[in-house]
Amino acid sequence: MNILVVEDEDILRISIRDDLKEVGFKVAVCRTPIPALSLLETKKYDVAIVDYKMPEMDGITLLQKIKQKQPDCAVIIISAFGTIQTAVEAMKRGAYDYITKPFSNEELILMLRRIQEVFSLKKENIKLKEQLKEQRGYHSLIGESKAMQQIHNLLEIVAHSNSTVLITGETGSGKEVVADAIHYLGPRKNNPYIKVCCALFSKEILESELFGHEEGAFTGAVHEKKGRFELADEGTLFLDDVDDIPLDIQVKLLRVLQHSQFERVGGTETRTVDVRVIAASKVNLLEKARRGEFREDLYYRLNVVPIELPPLRERKEDLPLFIEAFIKKYAKGEQMTISSQAMNLFHNYHWPGNVRELENIIERLALIAPDATIMPAHLPSEMFCKDIIPPIAWKEGNSYDEIMKENEIKLIKTALEMVGGNKSKAARFLKLKPSTLRSKIEKFRL
Question: Would you say 73 and 47 are in contact if contact means Cβ atoms under 8 Å apart?
Fold first, then answer.
């Protein structure tokens, strides 16, 4: 760290310089503020240690000038005239901290070490953000909505820990993708990353999959087998659909989470592993535990760091970002765009299948119209929801027949617009015979 010391007392200035250099800091010193301001023009400093009372200008004035020139510089005010009012004023003006004379240089060094840790953390956060941007293959991490920004911030903290994480969210919301990000952004990224979907196996097979088995443990166990916990040693194990684990296996899972120990099926040897566990659930595990369908102690052991993924319908402001990413992924350089009418349908749709459903639709569109503008006619029928039906037009004084005619015209126009003018699709959407729709179009001269 580069440190600038501005202190008019010669003995103290030299003492601070020598002690700070001895512990590895790069130090420049000035007796008065004017030369210090000149140094700030030519070199960046991480910390400035500034005396409160000096000739030329006081420490608070110098503090303000430092912040104007180098806003990221942490300023420590030192003074023999320590009062609460002085300290409060310094902090209000942007000082990082305030220390009163006399003080030991060890006390100052400790303060600088804390600042160094903060700077290091900030740099790490910036690095993680850049890594997240580079990992745009993790499409479910895309998003500028408030909910997704909170998840991004949480990932920056969680990625470098070994804490157990429980990811909850609806099917298709991107739980596995978040688990991938936690592993690949963390210190275990070059170690094994093992996944198991707990919903795929029967109770007997799941126990063997997780913990392994010895030869002869059951019919068909002709060889010993390592379980997923052993395979994930020193790495990460992702337990998808953890809510589907049977109760009697949950006891064994709780033990390995608490003590990192287990026995294979049919074995007596206790095995120890170093595994970071990430679990995902499509249901509320606490509610399931309160119904007696899931061990409550296991829930709390899994829920050390909870991450709740919102469904796509609750963060539709992220839709354009997802669509752009999926077009780039599946259109393969072709000029595929989406019309405003089709985009309205994307925004009006409730997305029961979440991000996975959106990705599937974009992949389908890239196959059928990779170099075209996507119109409503290209979209699946389930996206034509009731929300597009126009409100009833009602004008005071109009007769019943006039109101019906006006609204029928409005409905037909909306249907035609939504399907890009395709009369056959409009007829199917309105549940009319094509011939009936054609006659109405002619009747109303549309």
Answer: yes
* Pairing assessment for the beta strands 261-263 and 270-272 based on DSSP bridges: antiparallel
Q: How many domains does the structure of the chain reveal?
A: 4
Over the chain, what is the mean pLDDT?
A: 86
* pLDDT score recorded for residue 143: 78
Q: What are the structure tokens assigned to 249, written together?
A: 């296996």
Q: Tell me: do 297 and 350 sit in the same domain.
A: no
Tell me: do 258 and 384 sit in the same domain: no
Note whether 254 and 180 are same-domain residues: yes
Q: What are phi and psi of 392, to 5 degrees?
A: -65, 130
Residues forming beta bridges with residue 88, ordered by sequence position: none
Domain that holds residue 39: 2-119
Say which CATH number the domain at 209 has: 3.40.50.300
Confidence of residue 148 (pLDDT cuts 50, 70, 90): confident
Quick check: is 138 in a domain? Answer: no
End position of a domain, from candidates 308, 340, 365: 308
Structure tokens at 396: 């005071």
Residues in the chain: 446
Using CA atoms, how far residue 63 sits from 25, 86, 94, 95, in Å, is 21, 13, 8, 7
How many angstroms separate the CA atoms of 226 and 209, rounded? 8
CA distances from 341 to 347, 377, 418 (A): 10, 10, 6
> Which two three-digit tokens encode residue 164?
């157990």
**Helix or strand (DSSP H, E) at 78:** strand 74-79
Last residue of a domain, one of 64, 89, 119: 119
CATH of the domain at 107: 3.40.50.2300
Helix (H, G, I), strand (E, B) or coil at 282: coil
Residue 146 corresponds to which amino acid? K
- Do 420 and 349 fall within a single domain? no
Quick check: is 128 in a domain? no
pTM of the model as a whole: 0.59
- Assign 139 a pLDDT band (cuts: 50, 70, 90): very low
Whether pLDDT at 59 is above 80: yes
The reply to whether 147 falls in a domain is no
Return the percentage of the chain with pLDDT > 90, whole number: 48
State pLDDT tens for residues 401-412: 888 888 888 888
Q: What is the rounded CA–CA span in Å between residue 283 and residue 305?
A: 16
**How far, in Å, CA of 82 to CA of 72, rounded?**
25
**Cross-strand pairs, 305:** 165
